[in-house]
Predict the structure.
Amino acid sequence: MIEYNETIEEFLAQHSADVEEAVRKAAAAEIMPRFRQLAEHEIDQKSGPHDLVTDADRLAERYLTGALSSLLPGSVVVGEEAVHADPASYEAIRGDAPVWIIDPVDGTRQFVNGDTGFCTLVALARHGVLLGSWTYAPARDQLATAVRGQGAHLDGVRLRSGAPEPGRDLEIATSHPDYTTDDQKRALLGLWTDGVAPRSCGSAGLEYLAVARGELDGIAFSWEAAWDHAAGILLVEEAGGAHLTRTGEPFRITGGNALPFTAARDAATARRVAGLLAGGA
């Protein structure tokens, strides 16, 4: 547990492993026992058939809320399911207290379908600055972490996103059309051009991990819910990547971004994709 005279940086230096343990325990207790074992009554829709929530989402978020709040007294939690129940709670991202940003099961649709492509996302931020990131894919036993200024790691191995191979089409994961406005659809059409190979995205957290690993050149997403992006944005940054909105500013977890935005393996790719998004609008 953090002492009141301890800084956030000192907390991360001393307690990052405790956060990792909490994430693993939440998955072990609430997510994996339900993987491929969900009963019909454990699955609900939120905004529509592509926006699912399960008992695993709710209970894992409850577990993490308790564990992380105890680790860092005075911190607050912004979790996807809590915000769905009380939208006003999202405002804590813009407050003065350190904030844990949680997506208990990112890729719920994949989880429901028995696919391993889901993960738990946790980020720690303050005043809109991302400080720590944890991306855990329990069905694949992969854990990626990042601490601002200290790099990104996957299972303890340093991640370096590198740069795309010259002359090869850029592979870009994009938002599902169901989650885009007409204006955003026009912007995303800018990616349908020579030298770019867009495809629909899966779990946002795992797409960010693929960028950080240099396996995917970039993403182009049209929504800004912080729980989907916070952990991945820091992971990509610390692996050497960059992120920009279509008007050329860095993406802000506090909102107000010009959408769609991109995160990419390097700054040059981010500028190229942002330019295509601006040209398609």
The radius of gyration is 18 Å. The first strand starts at residue 43 and ends at 48.
